[in-house]
Amino acid sequence: MSAQAKYSVVIPMYNEEAVIQETYRRLKKVMGTLQEAYELIFVNDGSRDQSAEIIKDYSCWDDTVKLIDFSRNFGHQIAITAGMDYASGEAIIIIDADLQDPPELILSMIDKWKEGFEVVYAKRVKRNGETLFKKWSASMFYRVLRASTDINIPVDTGDFRLMDRKVVEQMKRLPEKNRFVRGLVSWVGFRQTAVEYERDERLAGETKYPLKRMIKLSLDGIMSFSYKPLKLAGYAGITLSILGFIYLLYVLYLALFTGATSKGWPSLIGIMLLFDGFVLIMLGVLGEYIGRIYDETKGRPLYIVNEVHGIQQEEQLPAEHTI
Ligand code: UDP
Ligand code: MG
């Protein structure tokens, strides 16, 4: 059944034992209404709880269930990528494990796909039960990203989406390590459209995206699609140099015509701080890019699979990202 699956649902999970059974139940219910073959690919991203065991159990008696078990936590974006590498369906759907993305929406996505769209992403019109800070920071992020890149990355859209096989095959050709999957999907192109939904609260458990990871994801999003931060440093440098030069002329005037230069200490220190600060920011920006270049040049595989369940031997073609 799985080899000819029409739909592949990819579910990344990291310590989701509290919700995963309910997620499985809801997904089965929705996919069951379709009367077409499907597979549920759970990617266990190094969970330290029972998530993998629960899915492994399911895969023993439900042949739509597949498990890709990572050797450790590689991160959400990598887990999605692995799921896409292993997916065999004609349409691939990515959904969070915590039921914040309603599985029922998959049906609307499939309708759009059947109309001929290759990418159908879910756009949040409302986010329920998340902190004000999360809503604000997410909203800011999408807008900064939009302003700083040339490709059209839709705002208020997460990774919950449907992609045609064509799109996924193209995604597999993108080898970059610091992945921002939704940006890459936009970059790949094809006909894209949105379905709207209200994002619910997590059913149970807590967010696996603490502030630190959100910052990393934002930086990946902005840095991999834009050179603007580098240019920004350049513009700031030019502006500060012009201001510095004018001030220098003023100091020269004071020294030559008024003899009041000894009073200049505070401004001298001020200028030094200003420029030192600027140089440090500039170094930081360069560091971010150089770090990413370094990641790419190492040529490491994106992820390491510990074991795979429910996927037949002949299906276990080496995923392109693991070569
Ligand atoms: N996730 C993952 N690896 C990680 C972090 C998260 O596979 O390192 C999964 C997680 O289990 C969930 C999805 O990615 O299915 C989204 O994570 P989460 O719900 O914590 O993010 P939020 O909705 O709070 O932004
Ligand atoms: Mg969530």
Automatic annotation (TrEMBL):
One of the Pfam families matching this protein, by short name: Glycos_transf_2
Residue stretches making up the Glycosyltransferase 2-like domain: 8-170
Chief location bin: membrane
Subcellular location: Cell membrane
Presence of keyword Repeat: no
Record InterPro entries: Glyco_trans_2-like, Glycosyltransferase_2, Nucleotide-diphossugar_trans
Residues of the signal peptide: none
CDD domains: DPM1_like_bac (cd04187)
This protein's record includes keyword Transmembrane helix: yes
Keywords: Cell membrane, Glycosyltransferase, Membrane, Transferase, Transmembrane, Transmembrane helix
Membrane topology: Multi-pass membrane protein
Gene Ontology MF, one: glycosyltransferase activity
Any single Gene Ontology cellular-component annotation: plasma membrane
Transmembrane stretches, start-end: 232-256, 268-290
PANTHER family reported for this sequence: PROPHAGE BACTOPRENOL GLUCOSYL TRANSFERASE HOMOLOG, UNDECAPRENYL-PHOSPHATE 4-DEOXY-4-FORMAMIDO-L-ARABINOSE TRANSFERASE-RELATED
Family: Belongs to the glycosyltransferase 2 family. GtrB subfamily.
Name recorded for this polypeptide: Glycosyltransferase
Source organism of this protein record: Paenibacillus zeisoli
